[in-house]
Amino acid sequence: MSLPQTPSFRLEGKRALVTGASSGIGLAAAVALGQAGADVVLVARGAQALDDVWNQMTAAGYTATALQLDITDLAATQAAVEAQGPFDVLVNSAGLARHSAAVNTTPEDYDAVMDVNLRAAYFLTRTVAAGLIAAGKGGSLINISSQMGHVGGIERAVYCASKHALEGMTKSMAIEWGSRGIRVNTLCPTFIRTPLAEQTLKNPERRAWIESMIKLGRVGEIEDMMGPVVFLASDASALMTGASLLIDGGWTAD
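User: That's the sequence. What structure does it adopt?
Assistant: C-alpha cells below.
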C-alpha cells in the first residue's frame, strides 16, 4: 500500500488575475498567490497605489505585472483579458459598498454598487472563462463575496442584494463549466480590517455589535484571507466548485 499524498498548494506555472489588487483583500490575495508561485496580474483603478504594490511584490521576488483598469468598463476589460490571457486563476476582489437605510437608498447608489459587485464581476468571470474554454484549459475562478451573501445586515440591503446575486451567479457558472474543468467558488469573509470597512469599524457601537456577532470575538485581518485564496486557487481544492467558503469567525453559525 502506498500512502496518499496531499495535493499541492503550489501555483508555479499558473497565471492569476486579481482585481482590487491595490488594497485590502485584493492585495492580500495577490501577495498570497505570488508567494505560492503564481504569475500575478494586478488590476486596480488607481495607478499610484497599484504601482506601489507591484514594486513591493517584485522587490520581494514575486512575479507580478500591474494593469491599470476600471473593470466597470466592460469593453476595455474584455480586450485586456483577451490580450493577456488565458488566466488559470481569477480573484474577483474589486468591490463597492454604499450603506444606508433601505428607505434612503438612491438609484445612483444602487447602480454604483451593482455595477461593480455584480455586473463587472459577471462579465469579467465570463471573459476569463471564455479564454480558458478557447484554450482547452481548466481553471479556478474565485469571487470575493461576503457573509452578507448568506445573511441580511442593517443598512446593507443593496450590498446584501449584490452579494446574494453573486452567490447565485457563481453556482450557475460552476454548473455550466464544471465539465470543462473550470471551477467557480466564492470566499465569504466577515468584517475584515480594510479601507472599505473602516467607516463601520471606527463606530464604537457598530464595532461592539460586530464583535458580538463574530464567535471568535475579533474582526478579521487581511491575512485571514490569504490561506483560503491559495486553497481555492490550487489543486488542494480540486473537487470544490459552486461552493461558498465562509471565513466569518462563526457569524453565520447561528
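Helices lie at 24-35, 47-59, 74-84, 107-135, 157-177, 198-201, 204-213, 226-233.
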